[in-house]
Design goal:
This protein has 543 residues and is an alpha+beta fold. The protein is built from eleven helices and 14 strands.
């Protein structure tokens, strides 16, 4: 890893940006749907509450009817046995009859539901074809005032029927038959029945009421009056449920609290989006603005990006900022080194030319030739510097290719070439025929620069060793040359640093090697050899 490589921040649990937006959109969508669902449930509760009230009224009126029958007759055989069960006897097949405590009770549970299909309006009463029992007619007249008083308080429609389905008590339809109505048919079998029917009104409801399904309905209940297993009559009640709009107005405090809760939820959603998306982006923008104004050198990764996309954006900005800062430092240092390297020979050339200009006529020939030779040497050095700078520029601007290379082919070509120059290549083991993710010409430039460097330092042999290192192949080149002094170990990768300046060294060879390897994701470092010089290369393997 390069010395100035940036270590990645520890990964946190991050969400995708689209996940955050999906959560917000679903929450926004759930608000009206949840309100509608609450509206429907609340409306249905009002309808079932109406049925429960009708059941309570029916139970009280049925008890009154039975008591009047007891008062009029001492025997218990009044009524008709037309069914196998009764509401006063336990029947395990009836889900409404449940054992409670140590005795069996027969609670009647509301069963109407607005979700179920609503029945059409109640059919009209028909003339009765059966004679009314005298006792039933007498009880109907006796309970007329009771029904009237009850209706004034409960606002329910009340019909008292005999055991044949004929109306014997109520405000209207006395003497007519309702036996053909479905809920009455069920009650004649001794079973409680309830149904929701459409309600016809002469006056149109306000527009706001159209959102309520319970506005145009009426709940009907048919409660059989049973004594000792005998059907004595039926209490037939009906009532319009409490209007939900009116009911909500009456409970406007609760409605206000629910509205406030929805508003708070919306604010929380806004804060959630702001904290997960807007805040990290604003933080990144603040950093880039500080970098632009010179208050900050590099953009740092956001500590808590929340989403993966913002984290990637933050890391990309930080990586780009770090690369630009490194490049800026490199250009500054490089410009300093270049100016120094060019200044020395240019100064010497200027001095020699001034002396020749002033004293060329009086200067001895041998002295004039010496100055001319110095001018040639300095211009030759400038030429070498320019050539090496061009090589370095090409290495810095190198566009990596997807070509692969391997070491056996490379060293097979280099072995004879350097052996003729007096440098022997010794391999500790056969080179692996592994594909490397670096172009052949780039790898050759790297190795030849290192081999030329060894020749300049009087090396005669280079030991080459390879080993696997994760996704890289480690290549060690150890020569038997003059080595590197401890004082110079920290300077050898500095551009233009060379101990062979008098022999034409430019100090750019290792800089070229470093730039090429960096372009392909590799690196180079100095080994720990006690004799000679050792360089360790990390070459990326081809995936």
């Amino acid at each position: 890893m390069p010395i100035n490589a940036r270590l990645p921040l520890p990964r946190k649990t991050l969400f995708r940006l689209r996940s955050i937006l999906l959560i917000v959109m679903l929450a926004v969508l759930a608000l009206p749907l949840g309100g509608l669902y609450f509206f429907r449930i609340y409306e249905n509760e009002l309808v079932q509450q109406t049925e429960l009230e009708l059941i309570s009224q029916s139970a009280a009126l049925a008890a009154t009817f039975r008591q009047l029958v007891r008062d009029q007759r001492r025997d218990n055989d009044y009524g008709y046995v037309q069914f196998s069960t009764s509401l006063t006897q336990p029947d395990t097949s009836n889900p409404r009859q449940e054992p409670i405590g140590n005795a069996f009770y027969t609670p009647v549970i509301p069963s109407v539901d607005l979700i179920a299909p609503i029945e059409p309006p109640r059919p009209e009463a028909r003339p009765s074809t059966r004679a009314v029992d005298p006792l039933a007619r007498k009880i109907g007249k006796h309970m007329k005032q009771i029904l009237h008083d009850t209706q004034q308080i409960t606002l329910s429609g009340i019909r008292l029927l005999d055991a044949k389905g004929t109306v014997i008590g109520g405000h209207e339809e006395v003497g007519l038959s309702l036996a053909h109505i479905s809920e009455i048919k069920q009650a004649l079998q001794g079973k409680y029945a309830s149904v929701i029917r459409q309600r016809l009104s002469d006056e149109p409801p306000p527009p706001l009421y159209s959102i309520s399904r319970g506005t145009h309905v009426r709940v009907f209940t048919a409660f059989p009056i049973i004594e000792e297993g005998r059907l004595q009559g039926i209490v037939y009640l009906s009532r319009t449920p409490t209007n939900i709009i009116k009911h909500l107005y009456e409970n406007k405090g609760i409605v206000f609290l629910a509205t406030l809760s929805l508003l708070v939820l919306a604010v929380l959603l806004i804060l959630f989006v702001s904290s997960t998306i807007s805040r990290p982006i604003r933080e990144l923008l603040r950093q880039t603005e500080r970098v632009r104004q010179g208050e900050q050198r590099e953009v740092e990764p956001i500590q808590n990006p929340v989403t993966k996309e913002v984290a990637q954006l933050s890391e990309s900005f930080a990586g780009m900022s770090h690369a630009l800062a490194e490049r800026s430092d490199y250009i500054r240092r490089f410009a300093t080194h270049v100016s120094h390297e060019f200044k020395t020979p240019l100064t010497a050339i200027q001095g020699a030319l001034e002396l020749l200009h002033d004293h060329i006529d009086t200067m001895p020939p041998e002295r004039r030739e010496k100055f001319i030779q110095n001018l040639l040497d300095d211009t030759q050095r400038l030429k070498q510097l320019v050539n090496r700078l061009l090589e370095l520029a090409r290495a810095d601007a190198l566009e990596t290719s997807k070509d692969s290379s391997n070491l056996p082919n490379l060293f097979k070509a280099l072995n004879n070439r350097y052996q003729d120059r007096g440098l022997t290549l010794h391999f500790s083991r056969p080179l692996p025929n592994t594909a490397l993710a670096i172009a052949p010409d780039a790898l050759e430039t790297v190795v030849t620069n290192l081999l030329d460097n060894s020749l300049q330092h009087r090396a005669h042999r280079i030991d080459i060793h390879t080993s696997a290192n994760g996704n890289n192949l480690q290549l060690r080149l150890h020569d038997d040359g003059e080595g590197i002094s401890p004082a110079n170990r920290d300077k050898i990768f500095t551009p233009f640093f060379t101990t062979k300046r008098t022999k034409g060294g430019t100090g750019l060879g290792l800089e070229i090697v470093t730039s090429i390897l960096k372009a392909y994701g590799g690196n180079i470092r100095l080994g720990n050899a006690s004799q000679g010089a050792e360089f360790v290369l990390e070459l990326p393997l081809f995936p």
